[in-house]
Amino acid sequence: MERLRPVSDVWMWPENRAIPRGELLDRVRDAQGLYCMLTDGIDAELLAAAPRLAAVSQMAVGVDNVDLSACTERGIPVGHTPDVLTETTADTAFGLLIAAARRFREGMEDVLEGRWGEWDPAALLGRDLHGSTLGIVGLGRIGRAVARRAAGFRMRVLYNKRSRDHPAEERLGVEFRSFGALLAESDHVVVLTSLNSGTHGLIDRAALAMMKPTATLVNASRGQVVDTDALVEALSCGWIAAAGLDVTDPEPMPSSHRLVSLPNCLVVPHIGSATVRTRTLMAERAAENLVAALRGKQMPYCANPEVYG
Q1: What is the pLDDT of residues 25-58, one digit of tens each?
Q2: Which one of the listed residues 103, 149, 188, 270 is annotated catalytic?
Q3: Which one of the listed residues 80, 102, 144, 222 is annotated catalytic?
Q4: pTM of the model
Q5: Distance from the CA of 149 to the CA of which of 28, 43, 47, 281 falls in 20 to 30 A?
Q6: What radius of gyration, in Å, describes the C-alpha atoms of the chain?
Q7: Does residue 15 have an active-site annotation?
Q8: CA–CA separation, 182 vs 175, rounded Å?
Q9: Is 270 assigned a catalytic role?
């Protein structure tokens, strides 16, 4: 707010929840700039309701809630916040991997519910990370950061993306695999791909059936990349051993959902970038993008740079 006020009159939704759609559509009618969140759908309906809109800035890296094509067609730059949350989100993904593979949730529940008895050599046996094979679906900034962490655990790292990343292979020692081969060979799979028409429902029944019955699945990308019903079936029927989720479909996921009740599934509420330092940097970068646009300058972090010709 301090950065935006010198360049514009600012109105901010005051509540700690997503702004209702009707309120958003009403508020953008005279707006030149919009500072938004992942919970806000920036689509054709909103753009039609905002004839003066000249810039959109999102406090997130992903922009799957934004119709980039429609914004570009209108000449509206869309700002986002890359780089600042890479390491923090990689920490979260790796933390979920450790917690799910080593059955931390089940152990914590045993303590809380008074089931912790005498030491049992067969109790809560999980899966090692060190010396195992990690498969990363989507080797972008966060994927490469996870690969660097895996090196410290002496993990063999496989990856899959649209095209091979030869520099990453040389620098990080990762190995390219087809999607199916990665699922079949990996002891643990971390999903870090962006959400688009090609990745929506990517981890479906067929994909889960390819994984090892001892495997761990972690999703720290977008909830819709994983078929929720298929994951419930896979965890219930022993197709895979465990899952750790920072994102879900639906999101937020109700506590009554079957996935939440499964003991071999650890669900946290989309906290991938939730540290004081990182969220502050995200907020500042989103403001920086919007300030630049309102001053007639190019956004420093633009998701659709082609808008500038």
Answers
A1: 999 999 999 999 999 999 999 999 999 999 999 9
A2: 270
A3: 222
A4: 0.92
A5: 281
A6: 21
A7: no
A8: 10
A9: yes
